[in-house]
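# step 3/5: fold
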Amino acid sequence: MYRLKQLFGDSLASRIFETQKTEVHVRVAAMNIMTYLGMPVSVRVGIALS
């Protein structure tokens, strides 16, 4: 909730509860995309000999 409020603000633009739910879903989806884009790509470098 802290990160969501930091990125998008404390208040919602919608007044109707159903549209508020939709607005929050869109914001969370946008935040998840931003988080995904900021994650590093890990690649294994060597071959493990066993």
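# step 4/5: annotate
The chain has one domain: 1-37.
# step 5/5: archive (pending)
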